[in-house]
Amino acid sequence: MADPRYTKLADTLITYSCDLQPGEKILIEAVDIPPDFTQELIRAAYRAGGAPLLFLKSQTLMRELLLQASAEQLSLIADGEEACMKESDAYIGMRGSANVSELSDVPTEKMKLYEEFLWKRVHVEVRVAKTKWVVSRWPNASMAQLAQLSTAAFEDFYFRVCTMDYGRLSEAIEPLRELTEATEQVRLVAPGTDLTFSIDGIPAISCDGHRNIPDGEVFTAPVRDTVDGTIRFNAETLYQGITHEDVQLRFEGGRIVEASSSNPEHLKSVLDADEGSRYVGEFAIGLNPYITQPMKDILFDEKIAGSIHLTPGGAYEIADNGNRSQIHWDMVLMMSPEKGGGEIWFDDRLIRKDGRFVVDDLDGLNPENLLG
């Protein structure tokens, strides 16, 4: 008998997130996911009248593949995946590696080849731009350990946050999207942080369960050359399998001119990947009331209530500042009192202080109102 939590999550992903319609094709990419849940996704797709397609993958096997991969080899793999993605109307990416650092010893130059010749072609240029898509994680023991919870407690948390009332969030989030889109200048203030930039003319996008599960953010992008000042991130961040603590960036004219972290050599190699990797492609405000602590999984961490994230690398076309890069690295700054506090200013108006919205129209996004 299927776990009812599996069925509820599968239905959320298929019918709410992807809004799968009769006759539409949906590509399900399952990376280290239990067959029982993948079965539920297939069943939910058929119930919606869709035609499921399936990729089964493993991070362990991907590591082995990438260790000696060539551009030609990755391009050939991309040919097949790109063709399938182009034929799909929707996409679900479920990812559940038992070791979040599985790719940590893949050489940097091999990761760059993967990002340029496979990830960019298939996911940036086709999946993100041309399909209805959603990505999520799977609650395994590795994730529970990162969250410092027992496996059973983490599973309860995971299914609670992933099947929350996203319709309610969608209604509450609209005033913030409208305010963000009407704003010209942003200032962020926190310990080690005093950063300003313009978002004038850049669309603001609500994230309410249609792209990520879990979800809960509004994002836009700084005007490319306007970011000035310093920012100090207080959530650990994992990129290319490498953990970084205490990332600090200094900007001049939109460009990162100084950078430090607990792993400075890797940080420099990422920021030097291409011209766009030292510019910012995204600014977002985290809103999910169930997520209050980081766990080194960006799909969760970027949604932390009372946080913001800033992203060195490429911009999304739906909120485009023109910056192009193979890099897209979300870095999180928590602004709750426990994390040192902080302020968000829109056009010289304080809108959030110490993680709580202080504008009446945005009060519905404070945690107690979203939790009901």
How do the strands and helices of this protein lay out in sequence?
Blueprint: H1 4-17, E1 25-31, H2 35-47, E2 51-57, H3 59-67, H4 71-87, E3 90-95, H5 108-130, E4 132-137, H6 141-146, H7 151-162, H8 166-182, E5 185-190, E6 193-198, E7 205-207, E8 217-220, E9 228-232, E10 237-239, E11 242-244, E12 248-252, E13 255-260, H9 264-271, E14 280-286, H10 298-301, E15 307-312, E16 331-334, E17 343-346, E18 349-353, E19 356-357, H11 367-371
Parallel strand pairs: 1-2, 1-3, 3-4
Antiparallel strand pairs: 5-6, 5-17, 6-9, 7-8, 8-14, 9-12, 10-11, 12-13, 14-15, 15-16, 17-18, 18-19
Helix pairs in contact: 1-2, 4-5
Structural write-up:
- This protein has 372 residues and is an alpha+beta fold.
- The chain folds into 2 domains: 4-162, 3-Layer(aba) Sandwich (Thermophilic metalloprotease-like), CATH 3.40.1830; 166-371, no CATH class.
- The protein has 11 helices and 19 strands.
- It has helices spanning 4-17, 35-47, 59-67, 71-87, 108-130, 141-146, 151-162, 166-182, 264-271, 298-301, 367-371; strands at 25-31, 51-57, 90-95, 132-137, 185-190, 193-198, 205-207, 217-220, 228-232, 237-239, 242-244, 248-252, 255-260, 280-286, 307-312, 331-334, 343-346, 349-353, 356-357.
- The strands form 4 sheets. It has an 8-stranded antiparallel β-sheet with strand order 13-12-9-6-5-17-18-19.
- Strand 18 (349-353) and strand 19 (356-357) form a beta hairpin.
- Helix 1 crosses helix 2 (35-47) and helix 4 packs parallel to helix 5 (108-130).
- The longest helix has 23 residues, at 108-130.
- It is globular, with a radius of gyration of 20 Å.
- The mean pLDDT is 95.
